[in-house]
Amino acid sequence: MAGASTTWEVLAGLRAATIRRGGRFLVVDLLEPHLTITTSVKNGGQSDRVRHLVNHQSCEGAGHTARFHVITGLGQEAYHDTVCDELGLPSAETAVMGTAANMSYVAIATETDADVEVTAAVTAGVQTNAVCAGDPASWRETPEGISKVTAVAGTINTMLLINRPMTAAALARAIVTMTEGKSAALQRLAVPSCYSSDLATGTGTDQFCVAAPLEGEKPLTSASPHMKAGELIGLMVRQATCEALRWQNGLEASLTRGLFHSLGRYGLKEASVFEDLAPLLETDDLELLKKNSKAAFFEPLVGAAGHALASVLDRTRHGTLPDSTARDAMVQQAATIASSLAARPDAWPEFRAQLLQSAGTDPKSLVLAAIALGWKAKWRAH
What we know:
alpha+beta; 13 helices
């Protein structure tokens, strides 16, 4: 039993709560009655009876179908009870979240303004399940049950602790601000959706627990970003989400400059890029690029141009830019990719003219042509 034998590490001791970690589990023990709102299958929604918040690694990130069948075979409510039994916690007083993320990568952020303290504890993974609100869904719930269930890995689980009582309305508003903070983190890292060409706003399996004490000073009446409490909620969630993604997925901000990160949602994939470039480069040029691919594809100015081109493509799709200018706007950024890769800003007009004349019209073909053009020109006498 994890509750009896697991070695627990206290990660944070707050006035009204303790955050501890042991093995596959992260537990928040609420030291006094709290008003909570959670996504837990049992005791979810708003409650004044929850005393423990649990986040745990319920499976591995890929290929763990046996574990998936165990969870679905038990049913979600029975699985909740199993988790609580393993931890030695009362099922009726516990909210549970599950994820494929490793609890060793939990990120905790705390900030105080006057007498308001906000703490966010986040685990996060987005590599296979990042989604933009409105993307095509994989699941359908009918009166007969859930159909077309797809096992996906990648979840952002957030525990949010506020040290002041909150009205029910403020607690509900805290969820909005918390969600916006999470989406702001994904925006900063330019995390792509796995299901469309859009940037992600979350994952399809995100969960949360929010808790505020029942007793204390006058309750907070707002968690809007216009209020300091809302500012802290958004800031701590954003900060903790970025940190959790850094550890779980290696999403160090500086590494997101690469072309595959910025333009992967438009078809440029690391796994196939050399095969795609083979018809466009001589064998020696292609082999040299393979040996120096990191330096080329992560070159800062090349990365800047890649993100600029992705933005142009986004703005064209969303109607910000007219279709009549789309081709020219795309080629301008592609020419910048080429001239940056070649380290020849003086050649930008030449590259633009060549790309306008010979490059394909779809984003992937255009980018491949720009890479080939710039790489060939880098070491060619001129």
